[in-house]
């Protein structure tokens, strides 16, 4: 029996939405620049998050898409979706800590956000700080004792400023969050309800759970984890982490990846029935868009090992919609979400009464929107959040 070098996440759990809207909420991140593809079908989503504007040390915003942003916002609105600017991201969170701890910088940052939204006729801001109180990118400033408390002060002031400028509840504030609640001095916070009071939705990034940075291979975005194998987080457990910390189900959105991580196994025949195998921490080259690049923070040269769904399909790695070709000569392992696993995650969102689902990122889908349509077809509207299920 050969071990499947490409692992899907099919056979996962269940889902939904706690919103009084007529259709489920589907938030799609779009990697945006002046070279972005504006011919995507934005009607398939309720909200588009344009990523990323980067906070600078002085509280200003750097954005590599100003020339085409007005056209993009018009196209998004024409298709009936809302458009938000997403600020930060994994590689753009270095300055959040210093900004939110300083009253003058917070005020400057807030005004720059307000002006950016007004100038570009946007519908809200998505704050993607990775991560308050915890290192993400090694270049990030981290204040473990105070980051989360200062972040709440900033969000409260931002909401107050939005109410003054745009009226009550007329401008969205959303956040991208990790698999555990924000860190306080003693670890993940047990109560994050105060953050929920100032924001509209939190997008749970239930992916990058296992990857080439670890000593052992495992699922990128598991529905449920196996005890004692791989990182002990999953979509299901991570949702419960936030729900049990007081985040309302109807304001929680399950994030799913339209990409997989490729890793290089050290000996793929050691246990041919398990996805958990010793691997190199140097990622192999991924799909045709991947390349070796120099990390601006560490100075190291590396490829990401990323495989976008459209290229898993287009480069012939799959025999069917969910089955990998095998055996692979180069002993690589790729974990990815497919139509079956996304159907299961939509069912999980339905079961828990969530506010919707989020996609990173819509430009990674096939031209016929194969994965997006699975979410649209299976995500349902539910009037009341149900909370933890595990």
Mean pLDDT, as a whole number?
Answer: 90
Q: Enumerate the spans where pLDDT stays under 50 for 5 or more consecutive residues.
A: 1-21, 325-329
> Class by helix and strand content?
alpha/beta
End-to-end gap = 33 Å
Topology at a glance:
Elements: E1 6-8, E2 15-18, E3 26-31, E4 47-55, E5 61-63, H1 69-78, E6 82-88, H2 96-100, H3 103-120, E7 124-128, H4 147-166, E8 172-177, E9 183-184, E10 187-188, H5 193-198, E11 201-205, H6 235-244, E12 252-257, E13 259-264, E14 293-294, E15 301-302, E16 306-308, H7 309-314, E17 332-336, H8 339-352, E18 353-354, E19 356-360, H9 370-378, E20 381-382
Helix pairs in contact: 3-4, 8-9
Describe this structure in words.
The protein is built from nine helices and 20 strands. The chain has helices spanning 69-78, 96-100, 103-120, 147-166, 193-198, 235-244, 309-314, 339-352, 370-378; strands at 6-8, 15-18, 26-31, 47-55, 61-63, 82-88, 124-128, 172-177, 183-184, 187-188, 201-205, 252-257, 259-264, 293-294, 301-302, 306-308, 332-336, 353-354, 356-360, 381-382. Helix 3 (103-120) packs across helix 4 (147-166) and helix 8 runs parallel beside helix 9. The chain is globular and about 60 Å long. The protein starts with 5 loop residues before the first strand and ends in an 8-residue tail after the last strand.
């Amino acid at each position: 029996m050969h071990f499947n070098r490409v692992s899907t996440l099919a056979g996962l759990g269940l889902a939904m939405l706690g919103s009084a809207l007529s259709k489920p909420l589907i938030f799609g991140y779009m990697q945006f620049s002046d070279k972005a593809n504006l011919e995507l079908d934005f009607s398939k989503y309720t909200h588009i998050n344009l990523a990323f504007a980067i906070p600078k040390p002085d509280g200003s915003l750097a954005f590599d898409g100003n020339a085409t942003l007005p056209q993009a916002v018009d196209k998004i609105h024409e298709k009936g979706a809302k458009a938000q600017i997403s600020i930060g991201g994994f590689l753009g969170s270095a300055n959040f800590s210093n900004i939110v701890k300083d009253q003058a910088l917070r005020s400057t940052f807030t005004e720059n956000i307000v002006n950016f939204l007004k100038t570009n006729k946007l519908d809200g801001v998505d704050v993607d700080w990775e991560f308050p109180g915890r290192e993400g990118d090694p270049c990030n400033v981290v204040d473990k004792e105070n980051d989360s408390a200062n972040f709440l002060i900033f969000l409260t002031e931002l909401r107050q400023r939005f109410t003054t400028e745009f009226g009550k509840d007329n401008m969205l504030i959303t956040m991208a969050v990790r698999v555990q609640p924000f860190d306080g001095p003693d670890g993940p916070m047990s109560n994050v309800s105060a953050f929920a009071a100032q924001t509209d939705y939190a997008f749970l990034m239930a992916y990058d759970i296992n990857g080439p940075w670890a000593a052992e291979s495992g699922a990128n975005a598991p529905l449920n984890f196996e005890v004692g194998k791989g990182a002990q987080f999953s979509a299901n457990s991570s949702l419960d982490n936030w729900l049990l910390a007081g985040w309302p189900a109807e304001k929680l959105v399950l994030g799913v990846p339209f990409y997989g991580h490729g890793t290089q196994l050290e000996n793929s025949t050691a246990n041919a029935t398990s996805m958990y195998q010793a691997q190199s921490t140097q990622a192999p080259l991924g799909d045709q868009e991947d390349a070796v690049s120099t990390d601006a923070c560490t100075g190291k040269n590396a490829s990401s090992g990323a495989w976008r769904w459209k290229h898993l399909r287009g480069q012939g790695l799959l025999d069917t919609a969910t089955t990998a070709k095998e055996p692979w000569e180069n002993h690589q392992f790729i974990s990815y979400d497919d139509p079956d696993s996304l159907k299961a995650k939509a069912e999980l969102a339905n079961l828990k009464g969530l506010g919707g689902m989020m996609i990173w990122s819509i430009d990674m889908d096939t031209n016929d929107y194969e994965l997006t349509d699975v979410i649209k077809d299976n995500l349902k509207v539910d009037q009341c959040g149900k909370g933890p299920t595990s």
